[in-house]
Every structure is written in structure tokens, then in C-alpha cells.
Write a structure and sequence with these properties.
72 residues, mainly alpha, 89% helix, 0% strand
Length: 72
């Protein structure tokens, strides 16, 4: 059950990254809010990179191996 929260949070980060990327590509932002949006985008880029590194890096396979060893 604990893993479902991990997948939900990762999904929110990935969807948020692509939504904000689309907004930045097609919508002209006012100068007064561009710094805040760029800060938010930087945080999402870091979160997106973390999600990719976990799910496609060695951390996921290591977690799967640990789960398999503990189930015996």
C-alpha cells in the first residue's frame, strides 16, 4: 500500500512537468510573475530528474531485489 503513494507522487511530478513545459512554450507570461514561474519550473525539473533516476536507474531494481529477498 505504501508504494501507491510513491507512484501517485511520481505521476503528479511528471504530469506537472509536462503541463508547465507546455504553458511556458505557448503562453506569454507577465514580467512580474516570470521569476516565480521559473523557480517553480526549476523545482519540477529537479523532481522530474529524480523520478526518472529512480524508475529507470539502479534504485528501482535494487528496491525490487530487496523486496524479493524479504519475501522469502
Amino acid at each position: 500500500m505504501k508504494e501507491i503513494y510513491m507512484y501517485v507522487l511520481a505521476s503528479i511530478i511528471v504530469v506537472g512537468f509536462f503541463v508547465l513545459t507546455g504553458i511556458l512554450m505557448f503562453v506569454t507570461l507577465p514580467e512580474s510573475s516570470s521569476n516565480v514561474v521559473n523557480l517553480l519550473f526549476g523545482g519540477l525539473v529537479a523532481g522530474f530528474a529524480t523520478v526518472l533516476n529512480y524508475f529507470f536507474g539502479s534504485s528501482k531494481s535494487s528496491a525490487d531485489k530487496t523486496k524479493l529477498l524479504n519475501s522469502k
